[in-house]
Amino acid sequence: MAVFTPVTLDDLSQWITQFDLGKALAIKGIPSGIENTNFFITTEFGEYVLTIFENLSFEQLPFYLNLMRHLAERGVLVPAPIANHKGDLINALHGKPASIVSKLEGSSQMDPQAVHCAAVGAMLARMHIAAENFPIRQPNLRGLAWRNETAPLVMPYLSDSNKQLLTEEMAFQNAFAESDTYRQLQNGPIHADLFRNNVMFNGDHLTGFFDFYFAGCDTWLFDVAVTVNDWCIDVETGVLDLERVRAMLDAYHHVRPFTDAEQAAWQPMLRAGALRFWLSRLYDFHMPRDAEMLTPHDPGHFERILRLRIEQATPPLFTSAG
Ligand SMILES: Nc1ncnc2c1ncn2[C@@H]1O[C@H](COP(=O)(O)OP(=O)(O)O)[C@@H](O)[C@H]1O
Ligand SMILES: N[C@@H](CCOP(=O)(O)O)C(=O)O
User: Among 6, 42, 117, 316, which one is most buried in terms of CB atoms within 10 A?
Assistant: First the structure.
């Protein structure tokens, strides 16, 4: 259903001649995406994913595609973009920007256990380190500036208690962003949307992170918070599952030790991660772009998570023994 721009095998056969991938043999639309049009394609050389970008522009895309290439070249498991004969990663198809990337094996693990969380934590730390010297800087487009612009837009739709929650949390996060602790946090390119549906596993073996189209430069700890808030919770309640939290954080810490400033910032950052997705879900729910957003994600899920992260004690980022 989410094939917004149809592509036939004939279209692909012409277009693919600019790549060193042999003849196109098959093309199959992927129904699950909500942002872009994705296809599995088969050529004489193997299987790939073709993405037509429905919302991102030719100017914004180099950051994402070059970041994926940078990471893939450094052994981080991500789809590797394929360049055409001229070396271009982004090429027009039916007038829209499009790219081919390698296909990851496996499927998403929607019922993760500690072993999966540990694998994600370790790969996330490797990704942060590998991306540190990536030369292109593009901010997190869902960062604090976006949150300050978006909060007033959704405010009229909220109940009194949610208005209060949003107002107080925005004040808290704006103050936190001005703090010395915040200034000490390490930052660089982050995935920023590393949910269960954006990671592939073959059994217990992680085969890759994908869907980098919310990536941007922000604190590494924000990426960890977003990831923990999705992978290490009971989905019904949003309550953190301590075994999975420890597995993910300890695995990350083993590869890239957390700092004392990050420890101090951990609870505010879990709140920031919840706030970011509460806001985007509220926005999509009350102001749907068009028929593309078939079933908007439930904002109530992240409202619950935000309230819990405010009210409940947070497990430490690391222990001195860890
Ligand atoms: N590189 C890839 N390898 C394997 N499958 C992929 C790859 N990229 C996308 N997919 C498949 O396509 C689906 C939709 O991709 P996604 O990037 O999440 O789309 P959207 O950003 O539009 O939501 C994924 O759930 C996954 O099954
Ligand atoms: N992870 C976000 C929505 C982004 O969708 P994706 O399929 O592109 O990852 C959320 O759950 O709100």
Answer: 117
